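Go through this fold for my students:
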Amino acid sequence: MSRRNKKPAACILCGILPDRQVYQNGSWQYYQCGKCGLVSLHPLPSEDEVLKAYDNYLPVKSNEIDCWQNMIAPVVDASANLVLENSKTDGIRLLDIGCGYGFFLKKMVQYGWQVEGIEVSRPGRDYARRELGLCIHAKSLEAMAFPSEQFDVVTLFYVIEHVHNPALVLKEVYRILKPNGMLLLRWPHSTPVVKVLGPLAPKIDIYHTPFHLYDFNPTAMTKLVARVGFSAVQHLIGGYTLPKKRLHRLCSIIFGRLAQGIYQVSAGSLLLPGVSKTTIAHK
């Protein structure tokens, strides 16, 4: 990915210039909007550069795929329960954008849902088709040009922070959802951890520079989702991942359980900063 203009652009949500640099890795810089708190990568790579980078983004070795499945399993289970409990339509059609290897889709098939996926990374797409027998599209959401009001639920797991224009993607999601259809987003909230780590942050690189184009917080995510037209926006903890590395797994378990406990004790009013969030909303 090339680095062109180093001058930070205006916040995609507020339209004001970000006033604080929170992270730098080489020539890549992340700036935070002083109004909504959205963190954005500068300079942004082009959309073609992003798509090219993701063609082989996912690992291909079977042991690595198994690790990926184990890592995401708690989030898959929690998200499946959220869909079953919160879907407001009578249908069972679901689209997962950026579906990876298809593990969430396979879980929903077990519940009798009719599913489709979109995955631009070839290893994930090939595995989901070959090993799980799923219908997976290689084109982007916009290029698919689905008819309006086709799906009861659309999900995006760790995708929204990677896309060049999050609002445009969610507008298309809104269009293809049926009335009362449900959106489910899973996204990282990395900036609080980056700020705590300070000079150590580039060594861990939680932003996965330059793959994370944005880092959302609940305020910014609410603003984005509501602007597109969704209502009843709700942010949850929604489980936690189980990384392969022992220290990373231990941290994820500790902070994931702490976050879930705080969320439950506060009746959903407190979300621990720095841990991934799940957002649900309806059309």
